[in-house]
Design brief:
By secondary structure, the protein is α/β, with parallel strands linked by helices. The chain is 38% helix and 18% strand. A six-stranded mixed β-sheet has the order 3-2-4-1-5-6, with helices on both faces. A hairpin with a 2-residue loop joins β5 and β6 (182-189). α4 crosses α5. The protein starts with a strand and ends with a strand. It binds 6-O-phosphono-beta-D-fructofuranose (F6P). The site of 6-O-phosphono-beta-D-fructofuranose has 10 residues, from α8. 6-O-phosphono-beta-D-fructofuranose binds next to α8.
């Protein structure tokens, strides 16, 4: 592909309360990002007709609502499954599952939540998405932090083991343009 556009969903109610996972709605600020996104995308992609890929979770679908393009939701784009820790804050996880909390800190890439997934698991389930992406043009992906880190690492040629620490802030559109000599990157942050 010539370029790929990536964004996390707008701020969710869970982002506000510090809870992980879940299927929360976007917050008021998240709504503001959703409303601004078409304009930011236009700045970056001009008149290109994009196709939007979201996860099946409400926050990515709500974030894409105002984009005037065809949309497709993929289960494979859902956030890393945090199993028994879903809907907890990091402080609650540390309190209830101290050994797990430490194990994740020691090896974040391989650590698999009880009843959930690791980053390594996410990389594997993203394979069909990456394959489809490689043979598509003009795709904008609206997804989640962990998933976006893995897609980003893939296109930037970064070792997947480093994906858990990639910087992908909220309310930022990332444009990646794979080239023979490496992937070019531009970021547009929505000031909201
Ligand atoms: O907090 C938002 C979130 O997308 C959670 O749903 C998810 O568990 C987490 O980020 C992933 O980030 P990390 O791997 O750094 O915990």
């Amino acid at each position: 592909p010539r370029s790929i556009w990536l964004s996390r969903h707008g701020e969710s109610e869970y982002n506000l309360s510090g809870k992980i996972g879940g299927d929360a709605n976007i917050s008021e600020r998240g709504q503001m990002y959703a409303k601004k996104l078409p304009e930011i995308v236009k700045q970056s992609a001009g008149d290109l007709e994009l196709t939007v890929w979201t996860s099946t979770l409400k926050r990515t679908i709500q974030t894409s609502k105002y984009l005037p393009f065809e949309k497709l939701s993929w289960k494979a784009l859902d956030e890393l499954d945090s199993g028994v820790c879903d809907s907890l804050t990091y402080a609650e996880i540390e309190e209830r599952y101290p050994a797990d909390f430490k194990a994740r800190d020691d090896d974040k890439y391989n650590y698999r939540y009880l009843g959930g997934e690791s980053y390594r698991d996410v990389v594997i389930r993203l394979e069909p998405i990456i394959m489809e992406l490689e043979r598509s043009e003009n795709i904008l992906i609206v997804t989640h932090q962990a998933v976006l880190r893995c897609i980003y690492a893939y296109f930037m040629g970064v070792d997947q083991a480093k994906s858990p620490w990639m910087e992908v802030p909220l309310h930022t559109l990332i444009k990646l343009s794979p080239r023979a000599y490496g992937t070019q990157e531009e970021r547009y942050s929505a000031k909201i």
